[in-house]
Amino acid sequence: MLFMIIYIPVSIPISWLIDKYGCKPVVAAGSILTGVCGVLRGLAGHNFGFAIAMTVGMSIAQPVFLNSWTKVSALWFPKNERATAVGLLALANLLGAALGQVLTPIFVEAGSTVAQIQLYYGIASAVAALLFVLFVKEKPATPPDASAEEERALMLDGLKHAFSLPSFRRFLIITFIGMGIFNGVTTWIEGIVKPRGFDSVQAGVAVTVMMVAGVIGSVLLPAISDKQGKRRPFIMIGLVGTIPGLIGLALAPSFPLLIASCVCLGFFLTSVNPTGTQYASEISLPTPEGTSNGLIALAGQVSVVLVYLMEPLRSAGGSYTLPLFCFAVLIGLSALLGWSLLEPEDFAAAPRPTSNKL
Known about the structure:
The chain is mostly helical. 77% of the residues lie in helices and 0% in strands. The chain folds into 2 domains: 2-138, Growth Hormone, Chain: A; 156-341, MFS general substrate transporter like domains (Growth Hormone, Chain: A, Up-down Bundle), CATH 1.20.1250.20. It is built from 14 helices and no strands. The longest helix has 29 residues, at 200-228. Residues 353-358 have low confidence and may be disordered.
């Protein structure tokens, strides 16, 4: 919970640091903080207070990674490859979470304690930090295209500009709903399927299948979006395609139908994030990429309120059918908002903020 809570106040300041000082120094600092705190958390043993303090340190670093996606894509890739690049970053994020879900039970079965498992992950984070510091560059020697060198507005001007755009505000709402649904389903998956006779093993398989489908969707649809040079249709495809997945998850009477629903839900819902994050970055220029990315990621983190709302909405018998149908309605309304989004080229002639120094 600390990761979600702490993200809210530190997201925008960290976005400013990314836009002001660049990805390399800020992400390097975040990587080092994560590695050091991760190792120390593993060494905390039974000292719960110290473990919590180290978790706070890691939580402060988290926005460094989530808020730098579009900045990296803008520095290293031409416009027609940036949604794909963000999709690959989303893939890495999903694979990391999935790897933790797979490895942790294996470590437990092998006799490792919680502290030991935390230490393993802390060491892995420290190694990743070292590799990043040694080998990652801020940007290529030759810019990928002219847009990579365009001036960006001051952060405050950029924030004002982004919030002045109806399409940007609408996509913030879409992100809030979409991430809330994803987090809610993955959090309560066992409770969702248990009333229909599925056990915890089947629930684990279902969420794993959803993650794998999400990995595929987060790469495939953004790549097609880049190839077609369009964003709105693929945001729409992701939102509309999510609806049958939610309905199936709520009602599927058999395990094969449950798995099919999870494939549909994971593939389409997860694809919206990378395509839409790049879309928000493009339409809000010259708002700095770190700022727009940070606002989108922040909307996703705040969506934890939807996760909590699922509990009081479930039936007395424990069924989550009502909250899942509510989610289907919300995603349908999101699709209506998606229909009203303007393509990035529609903003080409729009007025821009005049401040152009970070």
